[in-house]
Design goal:
Elements: H1 2-17, H2 21-32, H3 37-44, H4 50-89, H5 108-122, E1 126-127, E2 133-134, H6 136-139, H7 150-153, E3 170-171, H8 177-185, E4 190-199, E5 210-220, H9 225-240, E6 247-254, E7 257-268, E8 275-276, E9 281-291, H10 293-298, E10 307-314, H11 315-323, H12 336-342
Helix pairs in contact: 1-4, 2-4, 3-4, 5-11
The structure holds 3,4-dihydroxyphenylalanine (DAH).
3,4-dihydroxyphenylalanine (DAH) binds near residues 174, 215, 254, 287 and 289.
EC number: 6.1.1.20
GO biological process, one term: phenylalanyl-tRNA aminoacylation
GO molecular function, one term: tRNA binding
Length: about 350
């Protein structure tokens, strides 16, 4: 009897002291395993008299049951504590700033693309895309550039080698071919912007052979020039984050719009820096107009039923203006010092609620 009490006390003391699942398991084997101390007591009962067995049996079985329950409970508690500790250790506070400080930067052009798309998406425009390598039909013919028309030469096009049938693929000179692709594949009402790379054989302070544009196209019944102006003015205010952006529309010619205009933004170039909103200089940033009936017809849209407006803006120019970057060519010089200065935090996404930039 005393044996059982002593053993019971010892086993429960050991269980209390056990700090981890492995030592609890060891205790279980030592007590309840085949050769365990409790099992040995049970085995010893064979040699007892029936009276002894009657008092001894329930005591040993009781101990066995209590001990195995207590062991299961302790294991459960230890597993829970281990899980709690792990969850606490692996917790991530997503509101903390990134550590160590991020060294990569978002290029101002990508930043501006994001900003511009955010604004137009908010106005209900969808995003459309087209290929950089285009054919003559989408880049010129469907946009009402007649074959051999001098306007084609003004685009300083990069052509690929002639194919056997005499046609040549080209690097798109503007994002306007995405208008054509969209009108050919969708039915009005259409409201898209198409961001992307564009290419022309040209290089100086405000021109690079590869540059970026975003094209806008709205085709709906009853759309007019007033809507075009309203959309562009709203865009300018949102983009530059100022209420008074001084712009001017100049009459212009594009084969794919009639009437056509160019829009300039007032800026100041003195002292090597570029400032927007003041000064006596103007920077041309977009072309626009009402979609020419020939373009609508070429894309299978009836010009007597639908009208539309379109615009194309230089993203690089917008970036220069907004972020005061004086020379366009620096944008593509791949100089990390430049990027560190003009670039943006990769973890901050432009949005209209907390500010674009
Ligand atoms: N595609 C023209 C360019 O690159 C820009 C442009 C002008 C696009 C007028 C348009 C537009 O959609 O309506 O120079």
């Amino acid at each position: 009897m005393t044996d059982i009490n002593a053993l019971s006390q010892e086993l429960f003391a050991q269980l209390d002291a056990a700090q981890d699942e492995a030592s609890v398991e060891q205790l279980r084997v030592n007590a309840l395993g085949k050769k365990g101390s409790v099992s040995e007591l049970l085995k010893g009962m064979g040699a007892m008299s029936p009276e002894e067995r009657q008092t001894f049996g329930p005591l040993v079985n009781g101990l066995k049951q209590q001990l195995s329950d207590a062991i299961a409970e302790k294991k459960e508690a230890l597993a829970q504590a281990a899980l709690d500790a792990r969850l606490l250790a692996e917790r991530i506070d997503v509101t903390l700033p990134v550590r160590p400080e991020q060294r990569g930067r978002i290029h101002p052009i990508m930043q501006v693309f994001e900003e511009v798309q955010t604004i137009f998406a908010d106005m209900g425009f969808a995003i459309a895309e087209g290929p950089d390598v285009e054919d003559d039909f989408h880049n010129f013919t469907a946009l009402n550039f007649p074959p051999k028309h001098p306007a084609r030469d003004m685009h300083d096009t990069f052509f690929f080698e002639e194919k056997e049938d005499g046609s040549r693929m080209l690097l798109r000179t503007h994002t306007s071919p995405v208008q054509v692709r969209t009108m050919l594949s969708q039915k009005p009402p259409i409201r898209i912007v198409a961001p992307g790379r564009t290419y022309r054989c040209d290089s100086d302070q405000t021109h690079t052979p590869m540059f970026h544009q975003i094209e806008g196209l709205v085709i709906e019944d009853g759309v007019h020039m007033g809507h075009l102006k309203g959309v562009l003015m709203d865009f300018m205010r949102a983009f530059f984050e100022i209420d008074d952006v001084d712009v001017r529309f100049r009459p212009h010619h594009f084969p794919f719009t009639e009437p056509s205009a160019e829009m300039d933004v007032r800026c100041d170039r003195s002292g090597g820096a570029l400032k927007i909103g003041t000064g006596t200089d103007w920077l041309e940033i977009l072309g626009c107009g009402m979609v020419h009936p020939n373009v609508l017809r070429a894309c299978g849209i009836d010009p007597t039923q639908y009208q539309g407006f379109a615009f194309g803006m230089g993203i690089d120019r917008l970036a220069m203006l907004k972020y005061g970057i004086p020379d366009l060519r620096d944008m593509f010089a791949a100089d990390v010092r430049w990027l560190k200065h003009y670039g943006f935090e990769p973890t901050v996404q432009p949005n209209l609620a907390t500010g674009l930039s």
